[in-house]
Amino acid sequence: MKKVANMMGIIGLVIVLLLAGVACSTAVLPPEGYLKVTSSPSGATIGLEGPEGPFVGPVWETPYAFTNLKPGTYTIHLHLDGYQDWSTTVQLMANSPPQSIDATLAPIPTPTPPATGSISISSSPSGAYIYLDGTPKGYAPLTIHDVSPGTHAIKATLAGYEDWATNVEVTSGSTASVSASLTRTSTPTPTPKVPTTVLSVIVALAISSIIAAAKVRRGGKYQKR
Predict the structure, then answer these.
(1) In the CATH hierarchy, which fold is given to the domain comprising 117-181?
(2) Which segments of the chain have a pLDDT < 50?
(3) Which of 119, 169, 171 is nearest to 140 (CA)?
């Protein structure tokens, strides 16, 4: 009886070990054509291209595991807002072990502010010609771009108005505003013009007066030279 009990115990142990081995082999071995894609940060959209072209289907996001992929070359594309796009290529072989792709996504760099500024110029009345540091730029209103930071001289000219000038401070990445208010030039009082006929009469009378005075000085006799 004791022998039978020992034998039954050995048989039961063998059965337990066999079942455990089958369970372990089933749990450890992933399906064939296994490719797991993860990213940091997660949530990136996955694009997959295989030997037969791009995969079309639902939206896959990391982490995600593809299974039953045929042997061949696969390209993985990852996209996540605020991060630079990422891609890589992997080769899957027949009966190859499972493969994993772990991508570290780089943030999109913050744009560098421009190293120059701008000047927006208007004039009253409009149409004044604008000079920047002595260089002609055009008629107001206008905006001058790519101006180096610092102090710059602005001059506005318009026919019938006095020249207008000022200095403006320009900083990188910003636009300085200038408004030129022009003043009319003062009109000089014109000198009255004497008519030619009146002037001729005045000259003739002056000559006659001179001749008459000369006759008086010579005793009423006019002597020719």
Answers:
(1) Immunoglobulin-like (2.60.40)
(2) 4-5, 22-27, 29, 222, 224-225
(3) 119
Say whether 117-181 and 31-110 share the same fold: yes
Among candidate residues 121, 184, 113, 126, the one with its CA nearest the CA of residue 155: 121
Rounded Cα distance, 38 and 151, in Å: 54
Structure tokens at 212: 């008459």
CA 78 to chain centre: 27
**From CA 139, how far away is CA 123, in angstroms rounded?**
9
What average pLDDT does the chain have? 82
Its pTM stands at 0.45
Q: Considering the chain, what percentage of its residues have pLDDT values greater than 70?
A: 72
Write out the E strands in the chain.
35-40, 45-50, 53-54, 60-61, 64-66, 72-79, 86-92, 99-104, 117-124, 129-132, 135-139, 142-147, 150-157, 164-170, 175-181
Confidence at residue 17, expressed as pLDDT on a 0 to 100 scale: 52
